[in-house]
Recover the amino acids of this structure.
């Protein structure tokens, strides 16, 4: 590998790296190369291809024609798209804070050392993460359901009339519950891992100053894990905007409550696979990708700036 | 009240590169050496509510897997019905429809071994390169990968399908395996982990001894990366084992379905005209699907938790 290195490469190197590795500047490619090649094939090529697709339109008469930005214009005026976006935005505003809040509280409780059976709590609350979305959704869907669900059991036993969780009014909240169940433990673990690496000396200093538990949390723990909080928030935003599995699977159990354009991602899927509108579907996917990237980027900037 | 000042002046761990690397990796365990705080019953009970929330659905699944279809409808969800049908359900799951469940299980294993195994390999090699080498174009590689992580994976799915369909790859195992090979999160984790776990001096020593890069990697680096590798492997295994969207769009032939798609098709069967309802098999199949992953997480706890702890340092 070292012999492949052209002398010019050494001069073009951007920042001055540690001198000791000068000789080997191309060897790194031997290790990163395979990743980059596959990455280009499954990430960059589809992005490029979908941008290309979004500029064309396939019509019964005239075949495929170049239409410039017409598809984008259409998408921006598409009520079905905006409604689905509004739905996931509502989901984002309600479900993500609840999920991250519970995860943070549990992580702080575990980290406080005041729990009996801490390790049992940690692993058990994390376990749902290992359950596939399909199984989680089927399981909760059955429990929600009237056929052999828990809701009907409870209604029978107590004579109550709990509303059907799969009715159109409640189904979004029911999906929120499934997603929360799946990812509380995962986020808890991210927070908990970050909490565990805070140097112990900080707590000792706080104790000498007579700071209470709450003060330690707000003044030491939360600032120290800001990075983890930002990362978890960004992951949750990305996850919410591409919500698909849960509504798609739940649709079989609640066909009247979930439409084929329930979320933006469900909409692109339906456009492509039921409607055969590949070009328009690619356009909607690109717009959703852009929106997600912008929001994730803003969250990252804001989250990190507070730390300065 | 000088504490807040001291803390505020100390930025988040993200920028503190000054601490030694070895103590940091062992950080989590060190904490327990201090005085133990008083345990709290109240806090335990409150956290117990979240624990119940996490475990009750799994208990429901285990209990329901012991019921016949008729028992499911008749009995209370969180308690057993009269007849214990777990073994019947399991054997029926594996034999129903000419044993198609076994086929789905083997498909899933194939996708996991090749997809998650390959993803871990690429992430380990790439993470090591980013952590320990300077090479031309490193910044560009880094920027592109970080940028692409923010692109929603499913936004890529439809274009990937169209591209694969042009290339004749759809409805083959490759359509599921190839996209699974890239795990940006895995690459990130390995990069952070390799930075901490592999001392530069050791690499220098190996190079001075005249060991080739390949040999250095296998004999010196790989053993040091083991906890990180287990962590990345577990998370890529979960991602591929649980994958639903990608196979859903890529595969038409039920013979290539993974377990997730298969279970969904069994569930959907009840809703179609003339379809036989097999909810007991859907439930038992679900249980069989999650057992291997839960077992893996429980058995490998020690490794992935230390791997994650190291990964969180850099966030």
């Amino acid at each position: 590998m070292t012999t492949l290195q052209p002398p010019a490469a050494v001069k073009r190197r951007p920042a001055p790296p540690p001198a000791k590795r000068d000789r080997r500047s191309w060897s790194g490619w031997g290790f990163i190369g395979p990743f980059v090649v596959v990455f280009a094939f499954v990430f960059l090529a589809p992005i490029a291809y979908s941008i290309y697709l979004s500029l064309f339109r396939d019509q019964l008469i005239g075949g495929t024609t170049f239409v410039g930005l017409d598809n984008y214009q259409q998408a921006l005026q598409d009520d079905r798209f905006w409604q689905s976006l509004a739905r996931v935005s509502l989901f984002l505003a309600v479900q993500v804070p609840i999920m991250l809040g519970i995860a943070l509280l549990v992580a702080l409780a575990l980290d406080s050392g005041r729990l009996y059976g801490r390790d049992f709590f940690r692993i058990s609350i994390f376990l749902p993460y290992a359950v596939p979305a399909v199984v989680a959704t089927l399981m909760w869907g059955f429990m929600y359901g009237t056929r052999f669900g828990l809701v009907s059991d409870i209604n029978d036993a107590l004579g109550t009339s709990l509303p059907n969780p799969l009715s159109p009014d409640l189904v979004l909240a029911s999906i929120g519950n499934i997603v929360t169940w799946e990812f509380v433990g995962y986020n808890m673990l991210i927070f908990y891992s970050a909490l565990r690496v805070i140097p112990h000396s900080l707590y000792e200093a706080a104790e000498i100053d007579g700071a209470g538990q709450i003060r330690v949390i707000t003044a030491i723990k939360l600032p120290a894990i800001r990075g983890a909080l930002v990362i978890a928030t960004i992951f949750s935003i990305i996850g919410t905007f591409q919500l698909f599995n849960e509504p798609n699977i739940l649709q079989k159990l609640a066909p009247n409550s979930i439409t084929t354009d329930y979320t933006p991602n469900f909409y692109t899927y339906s456009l492509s696979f039921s409607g055969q509108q590949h070009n328009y579907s690619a356009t909607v996917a690109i717009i959703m990708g852009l929106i997600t990237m912008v929001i994730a980027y803003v969250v990252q900037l804001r989250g990190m700036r507070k730390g300065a | 009240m000088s504490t807040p000042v001291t803390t505020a002046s100390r930025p988040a761990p993200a920028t503190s590169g000054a601490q030694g690397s070895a103590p940091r990796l062992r950080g989590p365990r060190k904490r327990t050496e201090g005085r133990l705080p008083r345990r709290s019953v109240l806090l335990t009970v409150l956290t117990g509510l979240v624990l119940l929330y996490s475990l009750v659905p799994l208990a429901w699944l285990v209990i329901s897997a012991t019921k016949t279809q008729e028992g499911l409808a008749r009995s209370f969800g969180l308690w057993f019905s009269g007849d214990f049908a777990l073994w019947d359900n399991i054997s029926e799951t594996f034999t129903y429809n000419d044993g198609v469940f076994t086929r789905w299980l083997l498909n899933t294993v194939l996708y996991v071994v090749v997809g998650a195994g390959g993803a871990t390999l690429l992430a380990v090699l790439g993470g090591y390169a980013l952590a320990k080498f300077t090479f031309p174009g490193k910044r560009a590689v880094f920027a592109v990968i970080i940028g692409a992580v923010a692109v929603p994976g499913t936004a890529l799915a439809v274009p990937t399908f169209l591209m694969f369909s042009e290339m004749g790859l759809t409805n083959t195992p490759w359509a599921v395996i190839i996209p699974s090979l890239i795990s940006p999160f895995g690459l990130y984790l390995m990069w952070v982990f390799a930075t901490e776990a592999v001392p530069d001096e050791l690499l220098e020593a190996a190079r001075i001894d005249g060991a080739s890069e390949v040999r250095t990697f296998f004999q010196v680096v790989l053993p040091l990366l083991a906890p990180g590798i287990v962590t990345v492997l577990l998370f890529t295994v979960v991602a591929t084992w649980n994958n639903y969207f990608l196979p859903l769009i890529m595969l038409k032939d039920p013979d290539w379905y993974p377990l997730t798609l298969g279970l969904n098709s069994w569930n959907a069967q009840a809703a179609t005209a003339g379809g036989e309802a097999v909810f007991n098999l859907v439930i038992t199949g679900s249980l069989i699907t999650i057992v291997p992953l839960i077992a893996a997480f429980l058995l490998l706890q020690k490794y992935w938790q230390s791997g994650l702890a190291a990964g969180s340092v850099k966030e």
